[in-house]
């Protein structure tokens, strides 16, 4: 069970390791403690996450709620494909604050969905 949060610079964090049912309780506590020390913007890079499950996705939702309740902006970078797939199945990808290419990919996906459901004139 490997997990850690690296503080890259003020408000920017990198998650490394597993975000699973085994690590998420600790990740929740450590993340919220670190986020309390930051005013304003939070950027979380998930590129170092090599294993995750639905608990990892629940963690992102918890952090997102925390940011909203504490008037902080939050963006997730490099969400692992496995986690993004779980988010898409449950339509949670539509509320996650994605950044970079994943945000653009998400918008493109929404546009494709609209084409599929738009009535043909």
From TrEMBL:
InterPro entries listed in its UniProt record: MlaB-like_STAS (IPR058548), STAS_dom (IPR002645), STAS_dom_sf (IPR036513)
CDD domains named among the record's database cross-references: STAS_anti-anti-sigma_factors
Pfam name, any one: STAS_2
Family annotation (SUPFAM superfamilies): SpoIIaa-like
STAS domain mapped to chain residues: 13-96
Listed name of the protein: Anti-sigma factor antagonist
Source organism of the structure: Nitrosococcus wardiae
């Amino acid at each position: 069970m490997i997990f850690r949060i690296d503080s890259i610079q003020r408000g920017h964090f990198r998650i490394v390791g597993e975000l699973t049912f085994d690590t998420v309780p600790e990740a929740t506590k450590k993340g919220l403690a670190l986020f309390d020390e930051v005013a304003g913007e939070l950027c979380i890079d998930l590129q170092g996450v090599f294993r995750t499950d639905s608990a990892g996705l629940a963690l992102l939702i918890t952090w997102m709620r925390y940011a909203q309740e504490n008037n902080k902006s939050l963006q997730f970078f490099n969400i692992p494909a496995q986690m993004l797939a779980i988010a898409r199945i449950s339509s949670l990808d539509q509320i996650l604050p994605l950044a970079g290419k994943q945000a653009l990919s998400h918008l493109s996906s929404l546009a494709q969905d609209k084409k599929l459901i738009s009535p043909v004139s």
